[in-house]
């Protein structure tokens, strides 16, 4: 018996799963300025470059040579359409071709010890900004402790924070963000892990306008977060973070270099950004450090 002819249409890579199908997009500088002028990031300086090694490395370097400039208006933003040496935590590589990659250098009159929870605050600001842009994204985007964004367990965005000491009691926080606009099948194959993209959760995703709107919303959210964080730290944000926790009340494992450190039920986070882990020995507070969280089934 011969198989019936295959009449299914040839598969065409869709925008939602192929970075190569993503039309060239650009940040609309005028629209971005309008968005920032209407919000708390109004004084922030933004530069956009075609290509660089790493926007975090660029700003870290710039902060070292610039010295300390007090005040929210001295925050600097660097966006790159292409990064040739993007990095995640612990030097892991970040592939940015399917998304928006940028860094923010913000001055914080804080000691390093007071930075506890900052990376969670940044993740929350990013998730809330996506919801500002499109309310439909709110319930789709979850937070994975300490600072990943994900959709249905697949990584949507990564965050890397580095700090540059400025003077006693003051530092620059250099915050790098990589946000996938599309879910890229080729990159998934190369990385060997499932990824997510904004487009898959957003009907009518428009690459001509959306990156600018997202960037404006994220910068305004980060500027608002900065003011709260300086005054009160992460504590006022802990309940909002826990409400978006993708693993809330689920069994999880904590790993360091592939070695199991602890396992239990994820019970949200405390006011310092520590993960609350309910274990057989009671509730443990886990500081982020170099710990990675995985679902118990992973
Ligand atoms: P952790 O759970 O400890 O945060 P992680 O593997 O997610 O672990 P990160 O440092 O947050 O580590 O991010 C770097 C990792 O992200 C890389 O090792 C790579 O697997 C993955 N990655 C790189 N580029 C992308 C991307 N565009 N989208 C999603 N994931 C990516």
Write up what this structure looks like:
Helix 3 packs antiparallel against helix 5. The chain is globular. It folds into two domains: 19-243, BirA Bifunctional Protein, domain 2 (2-Layer Sandwich); 251-295, Roll (SH3 type barrels). The protein is an alpha+beta fold and 298 residues long. Helices cover 24% and strands 30% of the residues. The structure holds adenosine-5'-triphosphate. Adenosine-5'-triphosphate binds at residues 88-89, 92-95, 98, 148, 155, 158, 178, 180, 191, 193, 195, 292-293.
Lay out the secondary structure.
Elements: H1 29-37, E1 45-52, H2 55-66, E2 76-83, E3 99-108, H3 118-133, E4 141-144, E5 148-151, E6 154-167, E7 170-180, H4 185-191, H5 210-232, H6 238-243, E8 251-256, E9 259-269, E10 275-279, E11 282-286, E12 292-295
Parallel strand pairs: 1-2
Antiparallel strand pairs: 2-3, 3-7, 4-5, 5-6, 6-7, 8-9, 8-12, 9-10, 10-11
Helix pairs in contact: 1-5, 3-5
This protein binds adenosine-5'-triphosphate (ATP).
């Amino acid at each position: 018996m011969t198989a019936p002819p295959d009449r299914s249409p040839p598969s065409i890579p869709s925008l939602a799963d192929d970075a190569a199908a993503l039309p060239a997009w650009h940040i609309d500088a005028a629209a971005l300025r309008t968005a920032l002028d209407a919000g708390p990031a109004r004084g922030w300086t933004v530069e956009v470059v075609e290509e660089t090694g790493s926007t975090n490395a660029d700003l870290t370097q710039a902060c070292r040579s610039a010295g300390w400039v007090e005040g929210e208006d001295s925050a600097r933003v660097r966006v790159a359409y292409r990064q040739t040496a993007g990095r995640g935590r612990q030097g892991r590589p970040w592939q940015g071709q399917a998304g928006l990659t940028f860094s923010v250098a913000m001055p914080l009159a804080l000691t390093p010890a007071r930075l506890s929870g900052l990376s969670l605050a940044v993740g929350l600001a990013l998730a809330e900004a996506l919801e500002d842009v499109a309310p439909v994204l709110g319930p789709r985007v979850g937070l994975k402790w300490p600072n990943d964004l994900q959709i249905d367990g697949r990584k949507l965005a990564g965050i890397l924070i580095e700090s540059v000491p400025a003077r006693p009691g003051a530092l620059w926080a250099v915050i790098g963000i990589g946000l996938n606009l599309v879910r890229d099948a080729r990159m998934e194959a190369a990385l060997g892990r499932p990824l997510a993209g904004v487009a898959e959760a957003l009907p009518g995703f428009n690459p001509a306008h959306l990156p600018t709107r997202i960037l404006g919303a994220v910068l305004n959210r980060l500027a608002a977060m900065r003011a709260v964080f300086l005054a009160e730290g992460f504590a006022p944000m802990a309940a909002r973070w826990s409400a978006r926790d993708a693993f809330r009340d689920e069994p999880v494992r904590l790993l360091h270099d592939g070695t199991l450190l602890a396992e239990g039920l994820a019970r949200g986070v405390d006011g310092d950004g520590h993960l609350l882990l309910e274990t057989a020995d009671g509730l443990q507070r886990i500081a982020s450090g170099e710990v990675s969280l995985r679902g118990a089934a992973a």
